[in-house]
Design goal:
alpha/beta; 3-stranded mixed sheet; globular; Hexosyltransferase; EC 2.4.1.-; transferase; golgi apparatus; transmembrane
Length: about 350
């Protein structure tokens, strides 16, 4: 009982001390919270600048006039590619477009080490040479191998080409970031070697191709013979501003919110007047690393646009597997998940019906 009494006697002095202490604590807490608030504001600001480096600083990143800007190939940076450049073809002895001129040429961009994919295509849809009375040829285009075994890879490529004579190689470094260079070098090769072709298709190595359906489309009287490009056309495709997305583009590179329409790079076909027109537009448009979007930008320079395929089932991406026989009978090009699946689809497509 003594403790409470003693406590009561010290109530006045204790209250005063507690009041003083509370005041000190409140002032200290205020300063502490102020420091926390300032740190939080600073952290958020740094995060915003990191996530959106072009946000609020447009004038700082405005490109210099064309006459003053450094050529893109001098220092391409993360968003552009080194094109044009001092590139040349170091492997180019195919008889295609030299001793024989096909109606349709299929060009497959492939990595130097992709021999399994090349051999699979040679056994499947790349083996179809005469379709609906029209000659079809298949070629593979690639750049230089890299890595510790680059020399050995190059020697294997030379042996492979001696056997098949279907490789076209340029002396740029092969890689995903250089797909635009690979595409533009393909167009350069076409303009220089294949002026008598009717159509060319660029198609990735992991795609199923129904060659007969493609030739049927190109022979249709309603299919244009000039200024023609089709595939799975992306309309109103947004320019992605999230720097964590691999297709990120800051506003100082592309100010517009949308890309011009373009066909997805997995597979598209064009008439043979377009390669020269796209190459003519290239000096006016710095080449970004997203190759299919860049083609759309070059088409827009000429006031041109790709055309939707007659049916939306002709070009398929991210579809459900397995494909039915009815789908296989209508498709022109579709993504696959493996070499065995592509082989199986091709075998089934040859007799597939709805």
């Amino acid at each position: 009982m003594s403790a409470p009494q003693d406590g009561h006697r010290r109530t006045g002095a204790g209250s005063q001390r507690r009041g003083n202490t509370l005041t000190v604590l409140m002032e200290s807490s205020s300063r502490h919270f102020a420091h926390i608030f300032i740190c939080m504001v600073g952290a958020v600001t740094i995060l915003l600048v990191y996530l959106y480096p072009d946000w609020g600083f447009e004038s700082r990143h405005t490109p210099a006039p064309a006459s003053l800007a450094a050529p893109a190939w001098k220092d391409p940076g993360p968003y552009y590619v080194a094109y044009p450049g001092n590139y040349k073809f170091i492997m180019d002895d195919t008889p295609t477009c030299k001793t024989r001129t096909p109606f349709l040429l299929l060009v497959v961009p492939v990595a130097p080490g992709g021999v399994a994919a090349r051999d699979t295509i040679r056994r499947t849809w790349g083996s179809e040479k005469l379709v609906l009375g029209q000659r079809v040829e298949t070629l593979f285009i690639l750049g230089l191998p890299s890595g510790a075994d680059a020399k050995q890879q190059q020697e294997k490529l030379q042996l492979e080409n001696l056997q098949h004579q279907d490789l076209i190689q340029s002396n740029f470094k092969d890689g995903y970031h250089n797909l635009t260079i690979k595409t533009m070098m393909t167009l350069e090769w076409l303009v220089a070697r294949c002026d008598k072709l009717s159509y060319v298709m660029k198609i990735d190595a992991d795609m199923l191709l129904h060659v007969q359906n493609l030739v049927k489309l190109l022979l249709d009287p309603s299919t244009a013979k000039q200024n023609y490009m089709t595939g799975l056309v992306w309309w109103h495709s947004p320019v992605l501003r999230n720097p964590f997305n691999k297709f990120y583009m800051p506003r100082y590179v592309i100010a517009e919110p949308e890309y011009p329409p373009y066909p997805l790079g997995m597979a598209y076909v064009m008439s043979l007047d377009l390669p020269a027109k796209i190459l003519a537009a290239a000096p006016h448009i710095k080449p970004i690393f997203i190759e299919d979007a860049y083609l759309g930008m070059c088409l827009k320079h000429h006031g041109l646009s790709p055309t939707n395929a007659p049916e939306n089932t002709m070009f398929m991406v991210d579809h459900r597997h397995p494909l039915s026989d009815c789908s296989l009978s209508r498709v022109i090009a579709a993504t696959t998940t493996s070499i065995p699946q592509m082989t199986s689809y091709w075998e089934r497509s040859r007799g597939a019906k709805c």
